[in-house]
Amino acid sequence: MIEMALVVGLLAITLRTASPLLLASLGETIAERGGILNLGIEGAMLIGAFSGFLGAYFTGSLVVGFITAIIGGISTVLLFGILVIKVNLDQVVSGLAINLLATGLSLYFFRIAFSQGNFPYLGQLIDPTPIPGLSGIPIIGDILFNQTIFVYIGLLSVPLIYWILFKTSFGLRLRSIGEDPFVASYLGINVERTRFISLIVEGIFVGMAGGLLTISMFNTFDTRIVAARGFVAVSIVILGRWNPWGALAGSLLFGFTQALSLWIGTFLVGPAAPSISQLLSLLPYVVTLLALVVGGRKVRGPASLGSPFAKE
Amino acid sequence: MQLKISKSTYRSILKSLISVALALVVTSVLFILTGANPVLAYYYMFVGAFGNFSLTVETLVRMTPILLVSLGLAVSFKCKVWNIGAEGQLYMGAMVGTIAAVSLGNTPVTLLISIALCILAGMAWAGIPALMKTHLGINEVITTFLMNYVAIYFVQWLIAFPFRSPDTLFPESAQLPAAAILPILVPSTRLHLGVLIAIFLAIPLVYLLMMRSTFGYKLKAVGENPEAAKYGGINIKRTMLMALVISGALAGLAGFFEVSGIQFRMRGSLSPGYGYTGIVVALLGQNNPIGVAISSIFIAAIYNGAFEVSRVLNQPQGIVDFIQGVLIIFVLSSESIMRFLEKKGVIKL
């Protein structure tokens, strides 16, 4: 039975480490379905993490932190949206600009808010909320129903976003823009407005994905806190073929890899243990790259993805 | 030799100057918000970068890795291959160069072999995402960025365990042998040979490669119109692959120069993000080697000047990243801004 408990623990951690990736990749799936490749997602997550931390720290309320994280995410993604939709700048380079800007802003204002050598942390974190009744179910209860609100939101959003993308007229409009904005525009679809709506939704998800890092996972802020999770999420979108269910599968794979490397680390004994456990920190990145080699070759995304749309 | 500046060159220079001016104005807002006088802030920034001889030398020392990285990135960006993995390529170059130098010890060829190997390591590390792009069609932005993390964590592991220094407490490599250390050119400064190599060898070589060779012509053709380039018989994949690998070579060299000119040991904190700074510099210099050279002095001055600003005006260091982020946005928008100004008749060329 001890082995069983260990496996249940591993799977529960998998969902937890997968949650930022799941939320971010769901958001990115929506944006990319409309033809917008947002590589500024890394920076938007960072601002989400930062604003969530500030909100929770200065009001002492995690609810406020949750909301400020979302506001931070939306603002950053909207700034990106203005650059690529209104000013019509290159999407890839604008994304990189957003990432640098986010690092600069958060580093700067973190030092304004907290003096050098001060390592602030929150009094409380968003901890797992067991769902009454369901969390008591053996095995499944511990894995699925004793999680944080972020895991629940992520899991419930998968069918919701699938439904929005593939069963609603908004989803149809968004996808047709993603395939060919010129044709969509010709057919009377408001390309700019639809894309902005998709980016606001992305901002909400990415803000949550970033916010959970500070107010639920690490209890502190550092400009390196996102650690490429945004780019891993973009990879997951490719591997998941721009489908929310694919994003779920991809996020679970990477959550599992990360959980596994932490898990193995705790079992190692002997003189080589610290060495191996440090080397394992490479695993999630290596697995992402390998997964791209295996599953990301010559996949076809939305046809207009990343290309500019200028109405003449 | 007569120096003739064409109208389009003049326009390009103006575009970069407008970007810089706007970025500095926006950054002023940040200073004002935190109660600092922006004019004073920029004054201290200038003083911190060029206030006296030794500060100026330090700015040149700071410029060297930025210059090498951004020259390489200019090659890659010219054909629209977005290598954002220079940071990782820099670390791998530095690490392999260090291992070579420490293993060889004091021999007459230690420095040369280490330099050759650091370049190869940078090339190899860039070659992986390059092949993934050309042969599997995987977006290089994602792969090069992820490989930064692989490189940095791998290097941190190498210097914490297999190649850890036997004589210090920190996770760092052993000290380089004397034969692997770049000579200092002016006593009691840190002006090392690498600075000269970057200025007098790297700039002309990249200039010749980009402006005077068929490869440079191919880069431009692939970047501007890949379809036409294909019809013109240019091997697009090969050109992109070469471009990415060349940028890796220069990043690798930048990394080892930091070890053998400045740190003398491989450390986990070798680069404060030169790989990302190089992106800003290459774009600000509009992928032109001369423009890149001037831009890298400018950015190096901001790096070093920011220390003075933070010391005197108590401003946080984040200002360096912030200026870069704002700058990159204005560089991207500069063509639109320029057209707007021309339409309004503010600028006449």
Automatic annotation (TrEMBL), chain A:
It holds the Pfam family BPD_transp_2. InterPro entries: ABC_transp_permease. It is a multi-pass membrane protein. GO terms for cellular component: plasma membrane. CDD domains: TM_PBP1_transp_TpRbsC_like. One of its GO terms (molecular function) is transmembrane transporter activity. The chain crosses the membrane at residues 6-24, 36-58, 64-85, 92-114, 149-166, 196-218, 224-240, 247-270, 276-295. Keywords: Cell membrane, Membrane, Transmembrane, Transmembrane helix. It is found in: Cell membrane. This is ABC transporter permease.
